[in-house]
């Protein structure tokens, strides 16, 4: 991080280009593990939501049509 800070303060921008071009950790990591992580995350999310939707017994109440009834009108008491 210190190298990047020094490069960001460099007026000519040569330092920033050097840090950007010399840093090869991110492309290697994503090329090596990116697809597997995306597939694993997708499978995890689908399995958790599948469990929640089928096993927890949550009543979702997706549409209030026909379920919401108005309260009876009250006359004003004098």
TrEMBL record:
Pfam families: COX7B (PF05392). It is found in: Mitochondrion inner membrane. Keywords: Membrane, Mitochondrion, Mitochondrion inner membrane, Transit peptide, Transmembrane, Transmembrane helix. The chain crosses the membrane at residues 33-53. The keyword Membrane applies. One of its GO terms (biological process) is mitochondrial electron transport, cytochrome c to oxygen. SUPFAM superfamilies: Mitochondrial cytochrome c oxidase subunit VIIb. One of its GO terms (cellular component) is mitochondrial inner membrane. Pathway: Energy metabolism; oxidative phosphorylation. It comes from the Eukaryota. It is a single-pass membrane protein. Belongs to the cytochrome c oxidase VIIb family. This is Cytochrome c oxidase subunit 7B, mitochondrial. It comes from Salvelinus namaycush. The gene is LOC120056509.
């Amino acid at each position: 991080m210190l190298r990047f800070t020094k490069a960001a303060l460099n007026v000519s921008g040569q330092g920033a280009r050097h840090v950007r071009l010399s840093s090869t950790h991110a492309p290697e990591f994503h090329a090596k593990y990116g697809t597997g992580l995306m597939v694993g995350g997708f499978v995890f999310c689908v399995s958790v939501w599948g469990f929640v939707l089928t096993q927890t017994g949550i009543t979702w109440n997706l549409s209030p049509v026909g379920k919401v009834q108005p309260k009876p009108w009250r006359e004003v008491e004098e």
